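Re: that chain you flagged

S.,

Sorry for the slow reply, it's been a week of failed gels. I finally had a moment to sit down with the sequence you sent. For the record, here it is as I used it:
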Amino acid sequence: MRYQELIESGSAPLYHATGFYAAWQILNRGNIEASDNSYDRDDRYNISTTRNPRLRYYSVSGVDSPGHAPIQFVINSVTVAHKHKIVPYDYVYADIDTSKMIKHSIGHRSESEEKIIADKLPINHIVTVQLFTVPKDFEPNEDDEYFLKENGGYRKTYQLIIGLAKQNNIKIEDFRRKKKRS
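Prediction finished late last night. Pasting the structure tokens below so you have them in one place:
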């Protein structure tokens, strides 16, 4: 089955990217919670995910930066769909100069965002925790900056996340180490 067919069938995984502190909270409390400002157009709580594993949004001072989140949860969309509605979502905004409505996309491609309509999603729907190297110019948000200091830096913080994932019987994929080829 091709990737596009999987997406259309609704069985492709969902991805929820986040920072260190939020990942720790999720694994500690046992669920992903909708943030206070996560409402859809019908004022329902929702959890933001994507079908595109490469986006990995990370927010610093309210500005989203694609591809920089250090942690990403891979979520089983089939088990989620049994209990929650999953809604495709595209942002639309008004262009001030032309007053036309414009779809928000990245690099002329859709965000592939999917909203899970729920205020909480238990972590039993998470099949994998993915760990990524942060770029050299990485600026942690305020929560992560404090959390990294309290836990002794990146290495120890990643180990903390790995330990919690193992404790919750969640598979770990570590993309931080790249093998050098000779």
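What I noticed first: Residues 133 and 177 are 8 Å apart (CA to CA).

Talk soon,
D.
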